[in-house]
């Protein structure tokens, strides 16, 4: 039992069902820890004794051998295959996470990324032998510049947050070049921003000043003007924002920021809702990162590998980081040193994530301009189909307002049920769905944020919608046990998540001898 009084391991869920000898239920196999499977005194691989050597670990050297489990090859393969079956993935079903696009990655992209000339390229090989790889970087950069309407682009940032850092470092360098580095030290960050925005600003020495969101979920020009002052360096605004809404006053905000002598950083995590529909550069944006996994279909999750190129306006282009690709006649050169330029320096050791560049360019070329625009339109259509199909049962914080790529609900409709957003999310697991993003954005109480993406068919969306409608009817009908006991059919039951976060068990310890 966990601290909530619910069993952590699965139980027979239906009357008359029995517990099996193995703990497995058909192909739902109860898998032991790898330490419990393998022997600690043997290994399935013959390892030669190490030759004499002088240790440099000093007092940090261990007196005992590490307790690593020894498994045969079949045991190791079976262990990880069985574990993989417990993972939910976009290849298994609809992944409704809002704020964090999880969409199908076309297999064509994977095929292109695995071509030997791209998969085997090495960052330290002579550029004369990697002209094709540099051409991919150049072509992708050119395409992103066309779509954003910007003047320059940095390709080396490794992810969205790394891209934020790049954009804000360019802004900081531009302000220093104007001689205002000591006086402009504040970054304006709306309440509805991604959490990485204020963290990024603080990391490089900016103070953060919050800007409130209005009752309509948007940031107003008036609120921005009230926060602007001679000490403001930049605003960090997400558009579409974390509530899934387009910032309708973005042009006015950009003008106000520019008039105040500051810069406009746009969090481009949600660029996938507006590609082919509007260009951030035309809206007055000075810097914007692009999450390639969200907009251009590259793998997502597990902390990487990722890519977060940053588009820069003409005001910030001179301060772009190295390295960058430069065409010299018929050849391409990787400019790796900032000497003689206003570049703020180097963001990372090499040019970026080659595999992500190939996948993104493959996605762009295979879709074309009309296909990319349709992908944006389909993403918005899917989200609004979900919103309209659930609005009569689930409460939306901003009413009937048209959303962009994700639909947002709150927990007001659960008020008289005694259930919470978390209960509803756990019940979705029993229905075979990964829960949507919950309790984010923070400006909405008990938030449930759903992003169906453009990848899902109408049949897939209908099945998902009907599942949520069935759960909503059950919640309102007082079927509390269906929610408070959930998940029942998952490999593990509901955990005490607070205790798991505060007292994590991160290493296996040998049980005491019987």
Automatic annotation (TrEMBL):
Residues 375-471 form the Glycine dehydrogenase C-terminal domain. The keyword rRNA-binding does not apply. Pfam families: Aminotran_5, GcvP2_C. GO terms for biological process: glycine decarboxylation via glycine cleavage system. Gene3D superfamilies: 6.20.440.10, Aspartate Aminotransferase, domain 1 (3.90.1150.10), Type I PLP-dependent aspartate aminotransferase-like (Major domain) (3.40.640.10). Its EC number is 1.4.4.2. Residues 1-12 have a biased composition (Basic and acidic residues). GO terms for cellular component: cytosol; glycine cleavage complex. Residues 202-301 form the Aminotransferase class V domain. It is an enzyme of class 1 (oxidoreductase). The keyword Oxidoreductase applies. It comes from the Bacteria. One of its GO terms (molecular function) is glycine dehydrogenase (decarboxylating) activity. Residues 1-22 are annotated as: Disordered. It catalyses: N(6)-[(R)-lipoyl]-L-lysyl-[glycine-cleavage complex H protein] + glycine + H(+) = N(6)-[(R)-S(8)-aminomethyldihydrolipoyl]-L-lysyl-[glycine-cleavage complex H protein] + CO2. Keywords: Oxidoreductase, Pyridoxal phosphate. The glycine cleavage system catalyzes the degradation of glycine. The P protein binds the alpha-amino group of glycine through its pyridoxal phosphate cofactor; CO(2) is released and the remaining methylamine moiety is then transferred to the lipoamide cofactor of the H protein. NCBIfam families: PRK04366.1 (NF003346). PANTHER family: GLYCINE DEHYDROGENASE (DECARBOXYLATING), MITOCHONDRIAL, GLYCINE DEHYDROGENASE, DECARBOXYLATING. This is glycine dehydrogenase (aminomethyl-transferring). The lineage of its organism: Bacteria, Pseudomonadati, Pseudomonadota, Alphaproteobacteria, Hyphomicrobiales.
């Amino acid at each position: 039992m966990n601290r909530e009084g619910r069993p952590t391991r699965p139980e027979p869920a239906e009357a008359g069902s029995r517990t099996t000898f193995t703990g497995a239920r058909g192909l739902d196999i109860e898998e032991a820890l790898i330490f419990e499977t393998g022997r600690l005194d043997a290994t399935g691989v013959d390892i030669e004794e190490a030759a004499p050597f002088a240790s440099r670990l000093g007092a940090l050297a261990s007196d005992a051998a590490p307790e690593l489990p020894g498994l045969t090859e079949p045991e190791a393969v079976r262990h990880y295959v069985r574990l993989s079956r417990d993972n939910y993935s976009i290849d298994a079903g609809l992944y409704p996470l809002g704020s964090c696009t999880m969409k199908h990655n076309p297999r064509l992209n994977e095929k292109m990324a695995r071509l030997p000339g791209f998969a085997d390229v090495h960052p330290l090989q002579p550029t004369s032998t990697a002209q094709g790889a540099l051409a991919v970087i150049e072509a992708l950069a050119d395409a992103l510049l066309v779509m954003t309407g910007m003047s320059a682009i940095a390709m080396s940032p490794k992810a969205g947050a790394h891209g934020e850092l790049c954009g804000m470092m360019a802004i900081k360098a531009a302000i220093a070049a104007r001689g205002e580095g000591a006086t402009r030290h504040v970054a304006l960050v709306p309440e509805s921003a991604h959490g990485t925005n204020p963290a990024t600003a603080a990391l490089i020495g900016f103070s953060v000043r919050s800007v409130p969101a209005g009752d309509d979920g948007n940031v107003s020009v008036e609120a921005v003007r009230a926060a602007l002052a001679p000490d403001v360096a930049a605003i960090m605004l997400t558009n579409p924002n974390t509530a899934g809404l387009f910032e309708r006053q973005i042009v006015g905000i950009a003008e106000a920021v520019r008039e105040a002598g500051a810069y406009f950083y746009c969090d481009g995590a949600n660029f996938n809702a507006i590609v082919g529909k509007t260009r951030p550069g035309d809206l007055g944006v000075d810097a914007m990162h692009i999450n390639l996994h969200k907009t251009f279909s590259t793998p997502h999750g597990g902390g990487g590998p990722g890519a977060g190129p940053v588009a820069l306006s003409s005001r910030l282009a001179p301060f772009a980081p190295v390295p960058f690709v430069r065409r010299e006649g018929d050849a391409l050169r990787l400019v790796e040193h900032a000497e003689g330029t206003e570049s703020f320096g180097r963001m990372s050791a090499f040019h970026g994530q080659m595999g992500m560049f190939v996948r993104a360019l493959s996605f762009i070329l295979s879709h074309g301009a009309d296909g990319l625009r349709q992908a944006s339109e389909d993403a918005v259509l899917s989200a609004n189909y979900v919103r309209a199909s659930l609005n009569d049962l689930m409460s939306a914080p901003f009413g009937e307002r048209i959303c962009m790529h994700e639909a947002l609900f709150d927990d007001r409709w659960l008020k008289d049920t005694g259930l919470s957003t978390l209960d509803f999310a756990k019940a979705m697991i029993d229905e075979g769905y990964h829960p949507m993003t919950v309790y984010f954005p923070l400006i909405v109480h008990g938030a449930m944020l759903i992003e169906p993406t453009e990848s899902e068919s109408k049949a897939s969306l209908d099945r998902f919608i009907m599942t949520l409608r069935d759960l909503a009817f059950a919640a309102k009908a007082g079927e509390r046990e269906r929610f408070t006991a959930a998940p029942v059919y998952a490999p593990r039951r509901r955990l005490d998540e607070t205790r798991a976060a505060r007292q994590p068990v991160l290493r296996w310890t040998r049980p005491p001898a019987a």
